[in-house]
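Try this one yourself first.
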């Protein structure tokens, strides 16, 4: 079945998660550049870069999944990466590398991705195979 106008694996997906995860990856890259160039912070920011860009990569893999199980598995990985990204952002804030304002903006986006991905997983698991 795959993706098309009817959705992915019997479920309607309007690509909001695809667009938001891509936009988030761009923000993660820009934040990494800022932290490494201006704050000379490389360890935490590199972890953030890896997990923050991995969310969208796993969403893309889910959309191109070969089966429903592949789709669900890749979405689960994207969800885990979004949770991990939230962790690195909290560490960056609590160690003084991010201001409260900087943190609030990008962390809200990470939390939104967690909610969207969690909702898609729940809906997919509760939708009969078609």
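Now uncover the answer:
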């Amino acid at each position: 079945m795959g993706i098309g106008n009817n959705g992915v694996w019997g479920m309607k997906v309007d690509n909001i998660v695809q667009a938001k995860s891509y936009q988030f990856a761009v923000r993660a890259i820009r934040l990494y550049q800022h932290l490494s160039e201006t704050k000379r912070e490389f360890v935490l920011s590199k972890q953030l870069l890896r997990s923050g860009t991995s969310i969208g990569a796993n969403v893309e893999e889910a959309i191109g999944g070969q089966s429903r199980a592949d789709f669900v598995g890749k979405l689960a990985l994207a969800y885990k990466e979004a949770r991990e990204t939230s962790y690195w952002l909290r560490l960056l804030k609590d160690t003084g590398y991010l201001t409260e304002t900087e943190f609030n903006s990008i962390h809200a986006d990470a939390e939104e991705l967690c909610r969207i991905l969690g909702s898609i997983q729940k809906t997919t698991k509760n939708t009969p195979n078609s």
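Discussion: The CA atoms of residues 62 and 71 lie 4 Å apart. The radius of gyration is 16 Å.
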